[in-house]
C-alpha cells in the first residue's frame, strides 16, 4: 500500500473517531439530563418543606438572579462565537471569545456564591430545612458543572494558545461548546422552576 | 489533638478493633494481598504487569481483569452467604450463633452490595468486554481509554468495600441502606460511608461503561451489519446499557444526597428537618429495579447465543426476541413502586404498579418459549452451558411465577420483606443472572484464553449449583410464609423455623461444592490446557463473528474487518464452505497506546473516597486535585495513538498460523 | 432414548422423594400466612392459593415441554433414528402469536384480580362492622412496640390484646427509624415511619395467640422486635383492660421519654393512663421545629 493510500485510510478512521466522540458526548449529556431531572424531582418534593425556616419568597431576589442569568446567557452566545471562529481557524478570535466567555462564567459563579453566602449569613443554610437542602444541592450542582466547564475552558485556551487549532483541540472545543450550551439550558430550567416559581408561590 | 484530627479525621485505633470473625477475614485478606505483591516482586513481574495489564486499554485484557476481580468477589460474597446461613442455622432460642447482631448485619449488607455491584456487574462487564467488540466485528470499544478508567474505578470501589473489613466497619443498614437508619443519627460509624463511596465510585465507572458500549454498538459495527442483523447478545447489551445510561445517574444523585446528609448536615432523608425519607426509597428503586434488568438482559442475550449454537439451529423468533428486550427495557422504569406497596400509597397506585409489574412477565415468557422452540427440531448437545440453561428454565420459571404473585399488592402485604421475597429475588438473580454468566463464561472461555474448560467438572459444578440452589432457597419460600422476615440474626425456637434453616444451610454447602468444583475446573483446565487447545478459533461450531477469528484473538481482533451480509453471517459462510485463496487486503489502523492515566485516576478516586469516609479533608483535596490534574494532563496528550502498519498485521497473522501449525 | 429415559428417572426420583418429604413435613407444620385467624389474612391466603393455581397452569406445560424437547432432540438420538432437524426454521406466526397471546390473556385475568383485590384489601379501607371498632395507636420504638388504646386510655409495650370479631383500626408511626408492622396470622403489614402515620385495618376472627414482628431492619435490636398478639373474648378483653388500668405506671412525657430509650427485649409493660394527644405529638414533632415541653426528638 502506498503511503498516500495509507494516509487516506487513517484519515477516514480519524474522521469516524470524531463522529464517535460526538455521539458519545451526546449520550453523556443525556445521562447528565437524567441527573438533573432527579435533582429537580427532589426539589419538587421538598420545596414546601421549609420546617419553619425561610421560603423562596422571602429569600430570592429576582433582579439579582436576572443579572446572573443574563451573564450566563451572554456567555453562551460568546461561546458560540468562539466555536464558530474555531471552525474558521481564527485562533486569536477563539482565544478572545473564550476569554470573554470565561469571564462571564466567573461573574455568574461569583454572583451565585455571593447569593449562597448571603443566605447562609441570614441563617438559611442547607442545614436549615429540606427545602434549603434541595435548593443548595440543585443550584450548587449546576454551579459545580459551571466550575468544571471553566477549568475545561482554561485548559483548552492554553492548548489552543500553545498548539493552535489542531484536529484534537478542534474536536474538544466543539464538545466544550456543547457542554456550555447544555448548562445554559439547565439554568433556564432552574431560573424558571426554582426562582420564578419560588417567588410567585 | 487538633493536628491529629486534621491529619486523621475521625480515624483512630478503635477502627482497627474487630470481632474475631472479621479480624480473621481481614488478616487473611491482607496476608493474601501482601503475598501476591511479594510474589510479583520476587519474580520481577512488575514491569510486565504494568506494561501488559495495568496500563492496557485493550478490551480483551480489561475483560480478563474484570473476570479476576469478580471471581474474587464471588468468593467474598459467597463467604458472607455461608456466614449468614451458619448464623441462621445456629442462632435459635437460647443460642445466639457465631456472629453478633452488628456483625451479622454488616455481613448481610456486604453480601448484597458485593453480589450485585462487584459480582453481577463485574461478570457482566467482563463478558461484554471480552465478546461484544468481537461479535460486532470491531477492533475495540468506542472509547478504550474510558473503558480502562471504568474498570479501575470499579476496582477502586471494590477495594473500598473490602477495606472496611480492616479499617472501621461496614454498613449495617442492608444492601440499599434505607434512611433514616442509614443517616448519621442512627448509623454514626463510617460503615454507611464505605457503602456510599464504594458504590459511588464503582457506579460512575459503570455509567461510563454504559455510554461506551452504547456508542460501540451504534457506531462500531462491522461494515454491512445492520441493527437487525446483530447477534442477540449485542441487542441485549444495548438494552442493558441504555438502562445503565438512564438509571445510574439516579443512583449517583441518590447516593450523593445521602452523603450530603451524612457529611454536611443537609435534610434530604433524615427523620425531621423537613426531609422526606420515602423519597430515598422511591429514588433508589427508580435505579434499583432497572438494575435487575441491567444484569439479567445480558444473561438473556447469552442464552440466545448458546441455545442456537448447541441446538445447531437458527434462533427462533429473532424479531420477537428484540421486541421483548425493548419491552422489558421500557417497562422496567414503570414498576419501581412494587418494592414498597406497604408504604401506604392508595389502592389505585398500588394496583397500577402491580399490573405494570405483571406485564413484564409477558415478554419474559415469550423469550423462554422462543428458546425452547429453538431447541425444538434441533440437534442439541448438552454441554455444561446447556445444563445451566436447563437449570435456568426450571428455576427462573418458578421465580417468575412467584414474582407475579408478589406483584399482587394484597399478596405482597403478607410476604413483603419476608424470606419469601428473599427466595424470589435470589431465584431470579442466581438462575437468571449467575447461571447465564456461568454459561457464557464456559462458552466463551476458549475464545478468550485459547483452550476449553474441562466439561466433566463443569457439568458437576452446574448440577451442584442447581441442586444446591433448590435446597438453599426452597425452604426460604416456606419460611417466608411462616412469618420469617429477612435479615434476622436470631429467632425464637417456638417459631418452628429451625429445621428449614438447617436445610437451607445444607443447600448453601452444596452450592459451595459447586464453587469449589468451578475453581478446580479452572485449575485443572489450565494445567491440562495442551490437551484441549482451540486451534480453529471455532470450538463449538458457532454462528457469530467472534468465532471467525483466532482463539485468543490477536490484539486487533480482525486483520480485515469482516463484511456482513446477513444474520449469523459466520454460520452462513461456513455452509457455503468455499476456501478462499485470495490474499486478504490488509489496511493500517490506529490503536490507542497503553496509558497509566486510568489506574492513576482510580487511585486518586480511592484516596478521595477514603478521605471522605474518615473526614480527612486534606486527603479529599489530594484525591480531587489529583483526578482533575491527571485528566487535564491526559487531554493535553495528542500523541495517544499509534499506527498499526500492514507489515505488523502480516507479522502477527503469520505468528498465528505458526502457532497453529506448531501445536 | 432408553439411556436418557433411565437418566431422567434417576433425576426425577430424588425430586419426587424430596417433594413427598416436604409435603409430609409441611402438613404437620404451622404456617401462619396459610393458616390465618382473621378475615384479611384469609382473603390474602385465598389469593396466594389462586396465584399458586395459576402458576401451576404455566409451570407444568413449560416443564413438560422443556423435558420433552430436551429428550427428543438430543443430538445422540439423531444418530440412532430419523428425527426432524430443521436448522433454518426460525419463525412461525402461529406459535409466536400463541406465546404472546396466552400470557396476555393470563396477565389480563390477573390484572382484574389485582385491581379488585388492591381495592378490597387496601389496608386503609375500614372493615364492615356490626360492633364498634377498637382504635389502636402503634408506635415503633428502639426496639419494642408501644400500643396505645386511646378509647380505653391504657397502653402496653410488646403486648397487643384485642377482642375477637371486632375490627381494629390501627394508626401506625415510628419514633425511630422505619419499621414494618406485621402480624402474619391476621394479615397485611404496613410501614411504621417517623413523621408519618399509616393506617391498617385488621380483625381477629379466632381466639388465640399470634406472633407479631417488625419486617424491616431497624438496627441492632431488630431481631428482638417481636410482640404477642392475643385475640380474646369481649369479657376477657375487659378483664385485661382492668388489669392494665391497675398498673402503677402512667404514660406521660417523662415516662415516654424514658421508654423511648433504646432497649433490647423490653419486658411487657402496662400503662394505666396515657397523656392525651401523645401519638399526634410523636408524629408532628418530626414535621415542625421543636418547641418547649415536648417529647424529645430521639
Question: What do you see in this structure?
Answer:
The complex is a heterotrimer of chains A (201), B (663) and C (298). Chain A is mostly helical. Chain A has helices spanning 3-46, 56-59, 62-88, 91-121, 130-163, 167-200. Chain A is built from six helices and no strands. Chain B has 663 residues and is mainly alpha-helical. Chain B contains 21 helices and two strands. Chain B has helices at residues 2-8, 20-42, 46-54, 59-90, 101-136, 144-166, 191-219, 232-264, 277-311, 318-331, 347-359, 361-375, 384-407, 409-415, 419-449, 455-481, 498-527, 569-576, 597-613, 617-635, 646-662; strands at residues 589-592, 641-644. Chain B has a two-stranded antiparallel sheet with strand order 1-2. Chain B is globular. By secondary structure, chain C is of the alpha+beta class. Chain C has two domains: 2-120, no CATH class; 134-297, Sandwich (Immunoglobulin-like). Chain C is 40% helix and 21% strand. Chain C is built from seven helices and eleven strands. Chain C has helices at residues 2-27, 39-72, 75-80, 93-120, 234-245, 253-259, 278-284; strands at 134-141, 144-149, 154-157, 159-163, 167-174, 179-183, 187-192, 198-203, 208-214, 227-232, 269-271. In chain C, the strands form two sheets. Chain C has a six-stranded mixed β-sheet with strand order 8-5-1-2-3-11. Chain C has a five-stranded mixed β-sheet with strand order 4-10-9-6-7. The chains are: A mainly alpha (201), B mainly alpha (663), C alpha+beta (298). Chains in contact: A-B, B-C. Chains B and C meet through helix 5, helix 9, helix 10, helix 11 and helix 12 of B and helix 1, helix 2, helix 4, strand 7 and strand 9 of C.
User: What integer is the average pLDDT of chain B?
Assistant: 94
| Topology order of chain B in helix (H) and strand (E) letters | HHHHHHHHHHHHHHHHHHEHHEH
Please report the number of helical segments of chain A. 6
CATH class of chain A: Mainly Alpha
Helix content of chain B: 55-70%
So what's the oligomer here? heterotrimer
Which CATH-level-2 architecture of chain A? Up-down Bundle
* Structural class category of chain B: mainly alpha
User: What fraction strand of chain B?
Assistant: under 5%
Report the total helices of chain B: 21
Low-confidence stretches of chain A: none
Round the mean pLDDT of chain A to the nearest integer and report it: 94
Extract low-pLDDT stretches of chain B.
none
Strand order of the largest sheet of chain B: 1-2
Helix-residue proportion of chain A: over 70%
Structural class of chain A: mainly alpha
User: Whole-Å distance between the termini of chain A?
Assistant: 71 Å
- Report the sheet with the most strands of chain A, covering strand number, pairing sense and barrel closure: none
Corresponding CATH superfamily of chain A: Cytochrome c oxidase, subunit III, four-helix bundle
Question: In the CATH scheme, what's the topology name of chain A?
Answer: Four Helix Bundle (Hemerythrin (Met), subunit A)
Amino acid at each position: 500500500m502506498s503511503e498516500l493510500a495509507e494516509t487516506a485510510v487513517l484519515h477516514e478512521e480519524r474522521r469516524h473517531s470524531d463522529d464517535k466522540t460526538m455521539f458519545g458526548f451526546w449520550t453523556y449529556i443525556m445521562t447528565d439530563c437524567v441527573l438533573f431531572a432527579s435533582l429537580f424531582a427532589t426539589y419538587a418534593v421538598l420545596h414546601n418543606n421549609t420546617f419553619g425556616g425561610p421560603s423562596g419568597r422571602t429569600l430570592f431576589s429576582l433582579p439579582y438572579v436576572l443579572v446572573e442569568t443574563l451573564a450566563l446567557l451572554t456567555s453562551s452566545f460568546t461561546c458560540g462565537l468562539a466555536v464558530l471562529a474555531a471552525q474558521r481557524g481564527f485562533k486569536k478570535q477563539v482565544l478572545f471569545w473564550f476569554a470573554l466567555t470565561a469571564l462571564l462564567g466567573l461573574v455568574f459563579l461569583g454572583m451565585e456564591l455571593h447569593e449562597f453566602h448571603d443566605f447562609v449569613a441570614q441563617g438559611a443554610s442547607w442545614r436549615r430545612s429540606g427545602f434549603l437542602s434541595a435548593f443548595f444541592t440543585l443550584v450548587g450542582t449546576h454551579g459545580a458543572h459551571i466550575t468544571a466547564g471553566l477549568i475545561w475552558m482554561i485548559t483548552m485556551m492554553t492548548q489552543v494558545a500553545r498548539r493552535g487549532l489542531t484536529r484534537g483541540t478542534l474536536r474538544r472545543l466543539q464538545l466544550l461548546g456543547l457542554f456550555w450550551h447544555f448548562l445554559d439550558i439547565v439554568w433556564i430550567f432552574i431560573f424558571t422552576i426554582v426562582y420564578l416559581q419560588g417567588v410567585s408561590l | 489533638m487538633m493536628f491529629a484530627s486534621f491529619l486523621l479525621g475521625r480515624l483512630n485505633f478503635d477502627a482497627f478493633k474487630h470481632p474475631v470473625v472479621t479480624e480473621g477475614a481481614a488478616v487473611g485478606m491482607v496476608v493474601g494481598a501482601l503475598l501476591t505483591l511479594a510474589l510479583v516482586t520476587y519474580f520481577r513481574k512488575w514491569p510486565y504487569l504494568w506494561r501488559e495489564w495495568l496500563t492496557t486499554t485493550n478490551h480483551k485484557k480489561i475483560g480478563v481483569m474484570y473476570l479476576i476481580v469478580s471471581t474474587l468477589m464471588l468468593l467474598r460474597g459467597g463467604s458472607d452467604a455461608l456466614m449468614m446461613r451458619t448464623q441462621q442455622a445456629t442462632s435459635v432460642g437460647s443460642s445466639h450463633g457465631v456472629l453478633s447482631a452488628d456483625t451479622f448485619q454488616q455481613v448481610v449488607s456486604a453480601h448484597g452490595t458485593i453480589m450485585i455491584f462487584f459480582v453481577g456487574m463485574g461478570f457482566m462487564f467482563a463478558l461484554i468486554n471480552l465478546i461484544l467488540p468481537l461479535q460486532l466485528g470491531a477492533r475495540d470499544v468506542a472509547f478504550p481509554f474510558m473503558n480502562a478508567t471504568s474498570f479501575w474505578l470499579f476496582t477502586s470501589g471494590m477495594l473500598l468495600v473490602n477495606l472496611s473489613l480492616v479499617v472501621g466497619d461496614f454498613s449495617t443498614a442492608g444492601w440499599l441502606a434505607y434512611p433514616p437508619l442509614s443517616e448519621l443519627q442512627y448509623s454514626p460509624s463510617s460503615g454507611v460511608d464505605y457503602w456510599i463511596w464504594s458504590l459511588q465510585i464503582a457506579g460512575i465507572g459503570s455509567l461510563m461503561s454504559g455510554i461506551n458500549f452504547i456508542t460501540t454498538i451504534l457506531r462500531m459495527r462491522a461494515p454491512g451489519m445492520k441493527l437487525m442483523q446483530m447477534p442477540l447478545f449485542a441487542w441485549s447489551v444495548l438494552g442493558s446499557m441504555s438502562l445503565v445510561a438512564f438509571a445510574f445517574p439516579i443512583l449517583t444523585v441518590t447516593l450523593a444526597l445521602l452523603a450530603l446528609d451524612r457529611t454536611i448536615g443537609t435534610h434530604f432523608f433524615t427523620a425531621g428537618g423537613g426531609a422526606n425519607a420515602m423519597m430515598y426509597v422511591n429514588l433508589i428503586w427508580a435505579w434499583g429495579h432497572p438494575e435487575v434488568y441491567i444484569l439479567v438482559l445480558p444473561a438473556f442475550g447469552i442464552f440466545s447465543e448458546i441455545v442456537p449454537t448447541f441446538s445447531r439451529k437458527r434462533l427462533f423468533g429473532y424479531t420477537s426476541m428484540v421486541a421483548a428486550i425493548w419491552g422489558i427495557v421500557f417497562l422496567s422504569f414503570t414498576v419501581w413502586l412494587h418494592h414498597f406497596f406497604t408504604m401506604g400509597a392508595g389502592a389505585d397506585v398500588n394496583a397500577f404498579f402491580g399490573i405494570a409489574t405483571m406485564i413484564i412477565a409477558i415478554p419474559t415468557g415469550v423469550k423462554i418459549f422462543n428458546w425452547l422452540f429453538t431447541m425444538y427440531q434441533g440437534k442439541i448437545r448438552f454441554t455444561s452451558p446447556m445444563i445451566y440453561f436447563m437449570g435456568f428454565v426450571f428455576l427462573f420459571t418458578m421465580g417468575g411465577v412467584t414474582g407475579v404473585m408478589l406483584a399482587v399488592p394484597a399478596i405482597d402485604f403478607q410476604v413483603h420483606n419476608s424470606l419469601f421475597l428473599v427466595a424470589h429475588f435470589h431465584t431470579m438473580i442466581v438462575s437468571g443472572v449467575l447461571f447465564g454468566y456461568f454459561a457464557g463464561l464456559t462458552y466463551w472461555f476458549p475464545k478468550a484464553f485459547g483452550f476449553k474448560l474441562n466439561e466433566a467438572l463443569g457439568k458437576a459444578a452446574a448440577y451442584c449449583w442447581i441442586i444446591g440452589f433448590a435446597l438453599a432457597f426452597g425452604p426460604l419460600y416456606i419460611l417466608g410464609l411462616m412469618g420469617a422476615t429477612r435479615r434476622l440474626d436470631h429467632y425464637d425456637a417456638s417459631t418452628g423455623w429451625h429445621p428449614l434453616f438447617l436445610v437451607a444451610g445444607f443447600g448453601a454447602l452444596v452450592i459451595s461444592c459447586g464453587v469449589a468444583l468451578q475453581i478446580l475446573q479452572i485449575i485443572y483446565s489450565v494445567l491440562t490446557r495442551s490437551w484441549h487447545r482451540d486451534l480453529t478459533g471455532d470450538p463449538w461450531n458457532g454462528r457469530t463473528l467472534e468465532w471467525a477469528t483466532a482463539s485468543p484473538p490477536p490484539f486487533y481482533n480482525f486483520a480485515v474487518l469482516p463484511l456482513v451480509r446477513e444474520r449469523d453471517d459466520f454460520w452462513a459462510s461456513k455452509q457455503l464452505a468455499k476456501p478462499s485463496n485470495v490474499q486478504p487486503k490488509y489496511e493500517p489502523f490506529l490503536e490507542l497506546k497503553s496509558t497509566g492515566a486510568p489506574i492513576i485516576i482510580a487511585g486518586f478516586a480511592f484516596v478521595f473516597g477514603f478521605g471522605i469516609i474518615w473526614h480527612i479533608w486534606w486527603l479529599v483535596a489530594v484525591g480531587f486535585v489529583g483526578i482533575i490534574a491527571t485528566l487535564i494532563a491526559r487531554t493535553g496528550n495528542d500523541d495517544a495513538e499509534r499506527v498499526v502498519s500492514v507489515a505488523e498485521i502480516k507479522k502477527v497473522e503469520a505468528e498465528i498460523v505458526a502457532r497453529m501449525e506448531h501445536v | 432414548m432408553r439411556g436418557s429415559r433411565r437418566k431422567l428417572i434417576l433425576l426425577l426420583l430424588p425430586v419426587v422423594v424430596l417433594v413427598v418429604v416436604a409435603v409430609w413435613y409441611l402438613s404437620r407444620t404451622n404456617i401462619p400466612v396459610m393458616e390465618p385467624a382473621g378475615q384479611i389474612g384469609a382473603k390474602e391466603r385465598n389469593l396466594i392459593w389462586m396465584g399458586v393455581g395459576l402458576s401451576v397452569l404455566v409451570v407444568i406445560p413449560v416443564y413438560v415441554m422443556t423435558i420433552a424437547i430436551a429428550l427428543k432432540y438430543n443430538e445422540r438420538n439423531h444418530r440412532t433414528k430419523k428425527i426432524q432437524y430443521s436448522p433454518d426454521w426460525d419463525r412461525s406466526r402461529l406459535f409466536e402469536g400463541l406465546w404472546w397471546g396466552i400470557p396476555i390473556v393470563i396477565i389480563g385475568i390477573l390484572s382484574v384480580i389485582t385491581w379488585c383485590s388492591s381495592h378490597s384489601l387496601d389496608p386503609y379501607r375500614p372493615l364492615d362492622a356490626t360492633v364498634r371498632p377498637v382504635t389502636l395507636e402503634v408506635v415503633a420504638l428502639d426496639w419494642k412496640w408501644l400500643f396505645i388504646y386511646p378509647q380505653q386510655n391504657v397502653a402496653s409495650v410488646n403486648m397487643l390484646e384485642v377482642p375477637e370479631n371486632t375490627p381494629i383500626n390501627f394508626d401506625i408511626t415510628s419514633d425511630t427509624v422505619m419499621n414494618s408492622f406485621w402480624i402474619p396470622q391476621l394479615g397485611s403489614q404496613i410501614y411504621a415511619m417517623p413523621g408519618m402515620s399509616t393506617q391498617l385495618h385488621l380483625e381477629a376472627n379466632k381466639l388465640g395467640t399470634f406472633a407479631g414482628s417488625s419486617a424491616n431492619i431497624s438496627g441492632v435490636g431488630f431481631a428482638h422486635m417481636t410482640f404477642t398478639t392475643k385475640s380474646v373474648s369481649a369479657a376477657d378483653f375487659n378483664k385485661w383492660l382492668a388489669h392494665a388500668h391497675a398498673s402503677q405506671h402512667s404514660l406521660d412525657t417523662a415516662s415516654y421519654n424514658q421508654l423511648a430509650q433504646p432497649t433490647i427485649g423490653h419486658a411487657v409493660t402496662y400503662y394505666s393512663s396515657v397523656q392525651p394527644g401523645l401519638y399526634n405529638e410523636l408524629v408532628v414533632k418530626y414535621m415542625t421545629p421543636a418547641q418547649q415541653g415536648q417529647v424529645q426528638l430521639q
